[in-house]
Write a structure and sequence with these properties.
The protein is mostly beta strands and 788 residues long. Helix content is 6%, strand content 55%. It folds into 2 domains: 105 residues, Immunoglobulin-like (Sandwich), CATH 2.60.40.1120; 667 residues, TonB-dependent receptor, beta-barrel domain (Maltoporin, Chain A, Beta Barrel).
């Protein structure tokens, strides 16, 4: 009897304990478009409530098991009702809110979304979300972003590319990562961007001059890779990405992890990719009147490998957020053998023995980066400090061959570029009252550039720049904003002397000849200073947004423009700098008008641009040791153009998008007067459609997309450029999720078919287009992403 009583008592106590067990409801609220966290969102249920923090997080403690209804409300978003089943193993709740269609009055401006802030900013800005990056991911970050109207790339093979905004690239476009300007060898047309595109959540693209905040090199625009949002409190999250492609037999994997306690957090990512020679839809290539036959359509020696690693650790409190990033990006890529001069004709290397070998010529690049971002909030001020160190080392290897008077070198290292960069940005955002937001700051940077190898192109140099700026955003009323600012930059560049390691024969005035070590560059110190300024307005009239911005910006000349003096075998030409170059000065007008209908939107972004002294590389009629000499010179340039974009939802599951971009450039002075600029992109239109099907068996949210690019002929060229014919290319993709391992975090599947009809075409802004190499042929890729 006693034992039965104990059993009964044990069961009763357990019943009471389990009946009283409570749970914690945790979640995060994000903007549906930008996926940025929303602060001040109310989560209200029956005797339950919470408000989201600055990171968008909320938690409700002591909730009994059961089903609950919550109303989600935010002053600038549409209300939302959700149902939550509370019990064991509850997943984290993720809530996406759409921006409200209703006009906000003054008291509601406290809770602006990032989309609203962009509308109020006069600059022409595009926000690129993680969802866009995942759906449109290509072989490099800039190829992924080329679907944005006005953005294109200078492509170098299958895995490298440089950003171009409205026809301008190289050092006229600034790439910023985690608050610090990315500094590598961006001056070279054959140098890619050393940034791992996996793990990026948000990118801000500014079209047009942005020198006011970002400094002199942002004369054409900015690609700002913003820091990822802070992880949720007491959370752990991971992601695995797998990728395979058919065209170049690519295999890739990327693993990302992040964890946060209460105030401390960390994140890390490892990425590895290996690929073979890529295929082009042609069997022969005509370069410099020499015909190369391709084996099995492979562009020989374009294989490569990449290994990237990054880690960050951070701290967050009520008034301080600080995060330190450490990253290392390594790549080894072959150069298309037939493009590196014509010596391949006598090479003993069997380039067709394997499509995965990386033979000579090739290059290696290693980019190491340490950055700290710290923001401090006190009173009406937000102080932001960005401190960065970058170490970029790029080496080029080729078969040693004698050129001119140069004897055959004893090793294969042709060039070695080594750049160390130290950066410091300080910015204060001050709100004296409800109508003004004043931002003031300082940017400073020091570069130490060294060279090695037996081939000379640019000298070693040091570069120091410092700039101070201030601007005020004045709220005339809740829908009318004025921005005005000014900046002054000062820079010093110190190039170093260099003499050939071999003797060359020169003619003396008396008719005799001498053997001397030619001096390619001399010790020279130059300094530059100039003012940038900008004034803009933004007006929101119900569902129409108007923007206008006018400004002056400038760019300091680079070491290659001032002091290059050697053969560039990638282009088979002799490049010569001009020590008398003046800084570029640009005047630009940017407009933007966008309108939101019920189920569609339309926008237009025209611009006009005038360069007082644009710097470019001009081919001359002179030769040096059989190589045509190209000299850097300056000219007045007029540019105008813009983008037109539209999107509509025909019915619930079908969305159509269209965008058109056009750039006109004309030199109005100089040796190439009445010609355009090199690498000018042609008129182009992108049509896309996306249809989402109903769930089918194990496939959840299946959708199919199609992109059709229509590009016109480019007859506007600068000799010795050649006319590029227009083309049409179709790309298709299929996306779905599969509940393979966990229903709350399903496996994401993406199948992609690029260049569906294996079209042979030439991209006018491709590096290899200059040597008769078409774009890659048909490519099938499969990408799998599993979060946990």
């Amino acid at each position: 009897m006693f034992q039965k009583t104990l059993v009964w008592l044990f069961i009763s106590l357990n019943t009471i304990v389990f009946a009283q067990k409570t749970y914690q409801v945790k979640g995060v609220v994000l903007d549906a478009i930008t996926h940025q966290p929303l602060e001040g969102v109310y989560i209200i249920g029956d005797n339950l409530h919470a408000v989201t923090s600055v990171t968008g997080e909320f938690s409700i403690n002591g909730v009994l098991e059961g089903t609950y209804n919550f109303k989600i409300s935010h002053i600038s978003c549409k209300h939302k009702d959700i149902t939550v089943i509370v019990g064991p193993d509850m997943p984290l709740i993720k809530i996406l809110l759409d921006e409200s269609d209703n006009k906000l009055d003054e008291i509601q401006l406290v809770g602006k979304t990032k989309k609203r802030i962009i509308k109020e900013t006069p600059t022409v800005t595009e926000l690129v979300s993680k969802d866009f990056l995942v759906k449109n991911r290509e072989n490099s970050l800039m190829q992924t972003l080329s679907k944005i109207p006005g953005v294109s790339t200078i492509k170098i093979g299958s895995g490298q590319s440089k950003p171009v905004i409205r026809g301008l690239g190289f050092n006229r476009v600034v790439v910023v990562q985690n608050g610090v300007k990315h500094e590598a060898q961006q001056w070279g047309s054959d140098h890619g961007l050393e940034i791992d595109q996996y793990g990026i959540e948000n990118i801000k693209i500014i079209k047009g001059a942005a020198s006011l905040v970002y400094g002199s090199d942002a004369i054409a625009g900015v690609v700002d890779i913003e820091p990822n949002k802070v992880p949720l409190e007491n959370s752990f999250k991971g992601e695995v990405n797998l990728l395979a492609e058919s065209n170049n037999d690519l295999l890739g994997i990327s693993l990302g992890l992040q964890k946060r306690k209460e105030k401390l957090f960390y994140r890390t990512r490892l990425t590895f990719r290996d690929y073979a020679d890529y295929k082009v839809p042609t069997e022969k290539i005509n370069y410099d009147n020499y015909i190369f036959t391709l084996h099995d359509h492979n562009l020989r020696n374009t294989a490569g490998t990449e290994a990237n690693a990054n880690f960050s650790v951070g701290y967050i409190s009520n008034n301080v957020i600080s995060e330190t990033f450490i990253s290392n990006v390594y790549a080894k890529n072959g150069f298309f053998a037939n493009a590196h001069g014509l010596e391949v004709r006598i090479s003993s290397i069997d380039y067709d023995a394997s499509n995965r070998d990386i033979d000579l010529p090739y290059h290696t690049v290693n980019h190491f980066k340490v950055i700290n971002n710290t923001s401090i909030i006190f009173n009406n001020h937000t102080l932001l400090f960005d401190i960065g160190f970058q170490n970029n080392k790029r080496e080029e290897y080729t078969e040693p061959t004698s050129h001119g008077y140069m004897p055959k070198p004893s090793n294969t290292k042709e060039r070695d570029f080594h750049k160390k960069t130290f950066s410091l940005n300080i910015k204060d955002t001050f709100k004296p009252n409800g109508n003004h937001i004043i931002v003031a700051g300082i940017n400073t940077e020091y570069q130490d550039n060294n060279i090695a190898g037996w081939g000379f192109l640019i000298p070693a140099y040091n570069r120091f720049t410092i700039g101070g700026f201030a601007f005020d955003t004045f709220k005339i009323n809740s829908d009318f904003h004025l921005l005005a600012g000014i900046r002054y930059d000062y820079g010093v560049i110190e190039s170093k002397a260099y003499n050939d390691w071999f003797q060359s024969s020169v003619d003396n005035e008396d008719g005799s000849t001498s053997l001397i070590y030619l001096q390619r560059s001399q010790n020279k110190t130059l300094d530059f200073g100039n003012i940038s300024a900008s004034v803009g307005i933004s007006y929101i009239n119900n569902k129409t947004t108007y923007k206008a911005n006018i400004g002056k910006s400038f760019r300091m000349p680079l070491a290659n423009e001032l002091a290059s003096n050697g053969v560039n075998y990638h282009m088979y030409r002799y490049e010569k700098g001009n020590i008398n170059l003046e800084p570029e000065e640009s005047y630009q007008l940017d407009l933007d008008i966008s309108h939101q209908f019920k189920n569609s939107s339309i926008g237009v972004s025209p611009f006009a641009n005038y360069f007082e002294n644009y710097i470019y590389l001009n081919p001359t009629s002179n030769y040096f040791q059989t190589q045509q000499i190209y000299e850097y010179t300056q000219a007045k340039v007029v540019r105008f153009g813009g983008e037109l974009r539209a999107t509509t939802t025909i019915f619930e599951n079908l969305q159509l998008n269209a965008s058109t971009e056009y750039v006109y450039s004309r030199q109005t002075s100089g040796p190439k007067k009445d010609f355009t600029l090199p690498f000018s992109p042609p008129f182009s239109t992108l049509l896309s459609a996306n249809y989402q099907f109903n769930d089918f068996r194990f496939l959840k949210e299946p959708q199919i997309s199609a992109d059709f690019r229509i590009t016109a002929d480019q007859n506007e060229i600068v000799p010795p450029e050649e006319v590029t014919s227009g083309y049409q290319v179709l790309n298709m993709s299929f996306l779905a999720t599969i509940a393979a391992f966990n229903k709350s975090t399903p496996l994401q599947l993406k199948l992609k078919l690029n260049n569906v009809f294996d079209t042979k075409y030439y991209n006018h802004t491709s590096f290899y287009r200059l040597i008769d190499v078409p774009e890659a042929g048909r490519n099938i890729s499969i990408a799998l992403t599993q979060t946990f």
